[in-house]
Write a structure and sequence with these properties.
The complex is a heterotrimer of chains A (279), B (299) and C (450). With 299 residues, chain B is mainly alpha-helical. Chain B contains 12 helices and 2 strands, in the order αββααααααααααα. Chain B is flat. Chain C contains 22 helices and 9 strands. Classes of the chains: A mainly alpha (279), B mainly alpha (299), C alpha/beta (450).
């Protein structure tokens, strides 16, 4: 009897949870449906959900007639490049902030957060000058550098809080066994920090994937342009919006991220080993 | 530190660790100094000039930019809007974020897919998200109005974005939808590391669901939540794209926030000096907030 | 304010900052070390920026680039897209950093006026002469004669942005015989055609540039003006009050969401059939044929009504431009390329990319068979003809009437949103028009003084 009630509870809970998920992801569902509709079904009044006829025309045009794939490649390079750079620097930095003591430690942590306090609109032009003067204007490298600067403080603080939750004893135990601090870091701390690193890597890549303003100003040729500005420039002007292709492009920009994340889930659920955890 | 005599060997080990620690944080500091300090200082520098944006040339203005701003009603209204927007969307982001993270921490079918779909708003580019929401909010062919009318909740389409208080509420809501997954990711990661034994022990002691949440989960989450609130507050305070594209600051200036004023000054009125002044004021406000916040939460 | 001699001024006016000269030396120093590939470049490269680059337009550009490169070996043309939102910060960064493109097309005329007044553009007269001064429609380039005797740019296409579009089937049903020519007729028509889920008009009441441009049109259609021919603020007038009151009275014929409508929503409202009239340019034709072919037989356009028969129609044309930054490299070949853009084969392909929307500026093209060889242009011959003549006689805030001087602050006024706010205060807040106009006049004054 109790088991039957438990089963109903579980079903009810699942339905409830999935209802919320669908509500949150509703715009995505709607985007996908719209991208499969022919243009004549875009602005029907009253609006329809399901396409009257399904067409892949917009996807085809996007892939064949536009530089979409080039933009995709560029966004990929940006996301991966920025994430690698940021994770390496931030992990080392977070480790330093948590496990070491030296004068000015707390001040440096706060100073790094300073970079956030100015809105990007104001930083753009000086940053552009800087890139020109070091010969990097209109390159992906300039964007990686720009994105690193504002992803780094985020990553540092986030990783710091994750790493602070790892108990000191683990490092101490490894060193008792003869490891140096850096060996202890690699063998013991890093594995424990994996969920934190993965989440931080996720934030950083999403930030790099979706960034618009810097890409708008720092980069101007199609060879180097990422998806955000590429898609916008092509399909959105103040007088007209190519809705169908825009929806197709947006779906193609979002779905890969979702698929990648489904696979990364495993790392997020790998918890800490047995043992008391500092609160 | 104490009167204990320190052996030469231990001193050098501590010193070596200090140096190692400093080396590990060095790349961060280098990136910061090399790439951000120049634009940061440049922005503060520009704010005391009156600069014509297309040529970036101008003349000394002293504190004129600041006095002009602080005397204008528009500035104070924008500041108020900024505070309302930040407080509203932050609250929703934190509440939804924690609740949804808790929900997805349980065993749900196709949990990985559910989590990915929940993160979708954060994945989506802001520009596209705004265009899609404007379409959904549209009074003629927007799905939202039609569903509400079909359900009998309203009988005329609602003007979601063009009148107050709808505009601010819609903004806060879309902002929450867009950014709450950030909270979900961080909280989920932290939840994984809370050992089950703590919950089992509490259940044996007779604690109910809610008590387990407040006595075990919340304290464990506290540290991460503190950092997230800090990061998200700063980020929301500075938010530009979402508000600019969704309402443009309208109706009139009822949803205009300080970042929109910066953009207006810099590129619409071609006053880079004035824009920098607003930005510097924003920075000071956030600095004050950050200082008080960190002081309070370090206890 | 022509700033061509900024270095000179910097020396003689110690208070004036010249970041550009400082930066130029910094750039020169590092450029010497940091650009190895400049030696390897055998050919000349011309960079072309444009805000209009839909797939069809891009195909037309590629054709023009290909033919130019074939005729001029050793020259490479690189097309770089920018956008309506992006060009302002991008060009600001480009001008300030000395990293300018060779040629920029499709920017609105007030942007050109802005840059010309800062001394950033090359006089365009050579190119106009090469294309044929008489070939351009009469007065087509007057808006670019910011200083008499020299042109800052030339137009590359005309757009009649505020045509009145009508659903002829709805007109018939409501018993309306002629296209409205006065405001009273417009109001009556909208009132009769509104009903059963269809609204009369999609007029914008939003805080955006569409509202600004539309109200400028209405003020002129009432016989008023924003600035006098000598660029004194002249917006406080009976005519402007009439315009605002009429615009307020039309609110009931627009959908509820009009308080947030921009061009896209307004266009979709008419194209989807939700409104009986529209206010737009020729893109209506393209969108109707793609998105709502059912009404394709039932649409037509005319110039937007004015307050009475005494006031002539006032068409808004943002005169999309071609200009060359003064600091660009390889100016001679760039000028040749600019003229090449007007050659018949490539130019016709360009205007065919958005038929009816971007109209030709050259007489020979407008008359040619090759131009008329297009479905939409053929089908809607009358409408295209009307738009063409309206656009050629068109104006905008940078040049309000043939008697006006060029207003280089037009862009700043439009982008500041002052006029859109004015509309919202009168219509949404129900403030008294005259008081709001007085306040608006003061704010415009501040911008004009700079």
């Amino acid at each position: 009897m109790a088991q039957r009630r438990n089963l109903w509870h579980r079903i009810a809970y699942n339905v409830f949870a999935w209802a919320i998920v669908v509500l949150i992801a509703f715009p995505l569902i709607w985007m996908i449906l719209t991208s499969l509709k022919p243009q004549s079904e875009l602005f029907l009044i009253p609006p329809t959900f399901l396409p009257g006829e399904i067409t892949f025309e917009h996807y085809r045009r996007l892939l064949v007639e536009t530089p979409f794939l080039i933009y995709l490649r560029n966004s990929g390079i940006l996301a991966v490049g920025t994430t690698l750079v940021v994770i390496v620097i931030a992990t080392l930095g977070a480790h330093s902030l948590v496990r070491f003591s030296y004068p000015g430690r707390e001040h440096m942590a706060r100073l790094v957060l300073f970079t956030y306090l100015l809105p990007s609109v104001v930083l753009i032009i000086p940053l552009y000058f800087l890139m020109i003067s070091i010969g990097l204007s209109n390159t992906l490298t300039s964007l990686i550098i720009a994105y690193t600067t504002f992803a780094l403080p985020y990553a540092l603080w986030l990783l710091r809080s994750f790493m602070a939750a790892i108990p000191d004893d683990l490092e101490a135990a490894a060193m008792v066994d003869g490891a140096t601090r850096m060996q202890a870091f690699v063998d013991v701390i890093l594995p424990q920090a994996v969920p934190g690193i993965i989440s931080t890597a996720l934030f950083t890549s999403i930030l790099a994937w979706n960034e618009y303003l810097y890409a708008l100003v720092l980069v101007n040729s199609d060879e180097v342009r990422p998806l955000t500005t590429g898609v916008m420039n092509m399909l959105v002007t103040s007088f007209n919006i190519e809705w169908s292709m825009l929806m197709a492009a947006s779906v193609m920009m979002s779905v890969p991220l979702i698929v990648v994340f489904v696979f990364l889930q495993r790392f997020l659920t790998r918890g800490f080993g047995a043992g008391a955890v500092k609160g | 530190m104490t009167g204990k005599p320190i052996s030469k060997k231990r001193l050098s080990l501590d010193a070596r660790y200090s140096i190692l620690g400093a080396m590990l944080i060095a790349p961060t500091i280098i990136v910061f100094s090399a790439v951000i300090v120049y634009p940061l200082v440049s922005a503060i520098y520009l704010s005391v000039f009156s600069i014509y944006t297309p040529t970036m040339e101008g003349e000394w203005a002293g504190l004129d930019n600041y006095s002009r701003l602080l005397a204008s009603g528009e500035f104070w209204r924008s500041l108020l809007n900024n505070l309302v927007w930040t407080a509203g969307t932050l609250t929703l982001q934190m509440v939804f974020g924690v609740l949804v993270a808790l929900m997805l921490h349980q065993n749900v079918v196709f949990r990985s897919l559910a989590r990915s779909l929940v993160l979708f708003p954060y994945f989506l580019s802001t520009v596209v998200a705004v265009l899609v929401w404007r379409w959904l909010f549209n009074d003629l062919y927007g799905v939202l109005n039609h569903m509400l009318m079909w359900a009998g909740l309203i009988d005329m389409p609602v003007d979601w974005l063009g009148s107050m208080p709808n505009a601010m509420i819609s903004l806060i809501f879309v902002g929450a939808w867009k950014y709450f997954p950030f909270v979900v990711i961080a909280v989920l990661a932290r939840l994984q590391s809370i050992p089950d034994e703590l919950y089992e022990a509490a259940t044996i002691d007779g604690a109910g669901r809610f008590a387990r949440f407040t006595d075990i989960t919340l304290p464990q989450l506290k540290d991460v939540l503190i950092v997230i609130v800090l990061l998200r507050t700063i980020w929301d305070f500075k938010e530009f794209d979402l508000i600019y594209l969704l309402t443009g600051g309208g109706p009139i200036i009822s949803t205009q926030t300080l970042p929109l004023m910066v953009y207006k000054e810099a590129f619409a009125l071609n006053q880079m000096g004035g824009a920098s002044a607003v930005a510097v004021i924003m920075m000071l406000i956030m600095l004050i907030f950050m200082t008080f916040y960190l002081r309070k939460t370090r206890d | 304010m022509n700033d061509k001699s900024n270095e000179h001024q910097a020396r003689s006016c110690p208070g004036q900052l010249s970041r550009r000269s400082i930066l130029k030396s910094a750039v020169a120093l590092t450029a010497a070390a940091a650009l190895p590939f400049s030696k390897a470049r055998a050919s000349t490269t011309i960079r072309w920026w444009s805000t209009q680059s839909s797939p069809e337009q891009l195909a037309a550009y590629r054709y023009q680039i290909k033919t130019f490169e074939a005729a001029h070996p050793g020259v490479e043309v690189v097309f770089e897209r920018t956008s309506d939102e992006g060009y302002a910060p991008q060009l600001a960064a480009a001008f300030a950093g000395g990293n300018v493109p060779n040629i920029v097309t499709h920017l609105p005329s007030f942007a050109v006026a802005d840059y010309w007044s800062a001394g950033l553009l090359l006089p365009f007269d050579d190119v106009i002469a090469e294309v044929g001064t008489d070939n351009f429609f009469e007065g087509a380039n007057r808006i670019y004669e910011i200083e008499p005797g020299t042109h800052a740019a030339a137009g590359i296409g005309n757009t009649a942005a505020n045509m009145l579009w009508m659903r002829t089937d709805r007109m018939e049903k409501a018993g309306i015989e002629r296209l409205p020519a006065t405001w009273d007729e417009l109001r009556a028509a909208c009132s009769k055609m509104q009903g059963r889920g269809v609204y009369g008009a999609p007029l914008p009441y939003a805080k955006n540039s569409m509202t600004t441009l539309v109200i400028i049109g209405f003020i002129h259609q009432a016989g008023g003006q924003i600035l006098s021919p000598d660029l004194e603020v002249a917006i406080v007038s009976d005519e402007a009050v009439n315009a605002l009151e009429f615009y307020r009275s039309m609110r009931e014929f627009s959908p509820p969401g009009a308080t947030n409508y921009s061009w896209g929503e307004s266009l979709s409202a008419f194209v989807s059939g939700a409104t009986a009239t529209g206010l737009y340019a020729g893109r209506v034709l393209i969108n109707v044929s793609k998105q709502n072919p059912r009404i394709a037989e039932h649409i037509t356009c005319t110039t937007y009504p004015t307050i009475s028969a005494d006031v002539p129609p006032w068409t808004f044309n943002d005169f999309p431009s071609v200009f060359i930054p003064a600091d660009a490299a390889d100016l001679e070949i760039t000028k040749k390329f600019a003229a090449w853009l007007y050659r018949a084969d490539g130019y016709i392909q360009q205007v065919h990319a958005t038929p009816g929307h971007v109209l030709p500026v050259l007489k020979t093209i407008a008359k040619s068979e090759a131009y008329r060889d297009n479905d939409i242009i053929r089908r809607y011959g009358t409408e295209v003809e009307r738009m063409s003549s309206a656009a050629v006689a068109g104006h905008n805030l940078g040049w309000e009437t043939p008697h006006h001087r060029a207003n280089v602050k037009a862009g700043a006024i439009i982008n500041s949103g002052i006029l859109a706010e004015m509309v919202q205060r009168v219509v949404l807040n129900e403030e008294k028009p005259r008081a709001v106009l007085a306040n608006t006049a003061g704010r415009i004054e501040k911008i004009m003084k700079g």
